[in-house]
Amino acid sequence: MGRGRHARTRGARVKPVIVATSDLVDGFRLAGIPVYEFDDAPDKSDSQLAAIIQAVLARDDVGIVLVDERYMAAFEKAFEGRELPMIASFPAEEVQRDEAYIDELTRRYLGQKIYVEGT
User: Fold this and answer.
1) Which of 48, 50, 72, 75 would bridge with 89, disulfide CB 3.0–4.6 Å?
2) Which long-range contacts link 77-83 to residues 24+ away (Cβ below 8 Å)?
3) pTM (whole model) above 0.70
4) Helix (H), strand (E), coil (C) string for 34-103
5) What percent of the chain has pLDDT over 90?
6) C-alpha triplet 86, 60, 81: angle, nearest 5°
7) Which of 2, 3, 4, 7 is nearest to 83 (CA)?
8) Partners of 19 in the beta sheet?
9) Looking at the DSSP assignment, which residues form a beta bridge with residue 18?
C-alpha cells in the first residue's frame, strides 16, 4: 500500500494545532501546542488565512485544528471530505454568549454543568 503525503497509520501520534489571533496564542504556546498566529487586520486577513490553511494541509502530523470561531467556515470548506485533521472551533474572545450557550459548551466538552457563585 502506498503512502501519500497525508497517509496516516492507525495508532500514529498526531498533534493538535491552534489557529488564533495574537492575543490568544501565548497560553497555547506555553502549553507546548503549535500555533499559527493570525493577524485579523482587514488588509491581511484573506491572504494570511489562505496561507495558514495551506501550511496546516501540508503537515502530516496534525490530528485536530482548533480554530477561532470567526474563521471556522474557511477551515471547514478547505478541509471538507478529509478524515484528518479534524476541525473544531473555540469561541472568539469578543463574542458575548448567553448562559444557555455556555451551559451547552460545558456539558458537551466537560460532561457536566458548571455553577459559578457570586456572579
Assistant:
1) 72
2) 78/53, 82/6
3) no
4) CEEEECCCCCCHHHHHHHHHHHHHHCCCEEEEEEEHHHHHHHHHHCCCCCCCEEEEECCCCCCCCHHHHH
5) 26
6) 40
7) 7
8) 36, 67
9) 35, 66
Decide: helix, strand or coil at residue 12.
Answer: coil
- Which CATH number is 15-93's, of 2.60.40.1180, 3.40.50.10580, 3.50.50.60, 3.40.50.300? 3.40.50.10580
Residue range 58-80: mean pLDDT, rounded: 91
Cβ-contact 63, 84 below 8 angstroms: yes
| 33's grid cell | 501546542
Every domain of the chain and the residues it spans: 15-93
The overall average pLDDT reported for the chain is 78
Q: How far is CA 22 from CA 29, 33, 36, in A?
A: 11, 14, 9
pLDDT in tens, 81-107: 988 898 998 877 655 556 776 677 677
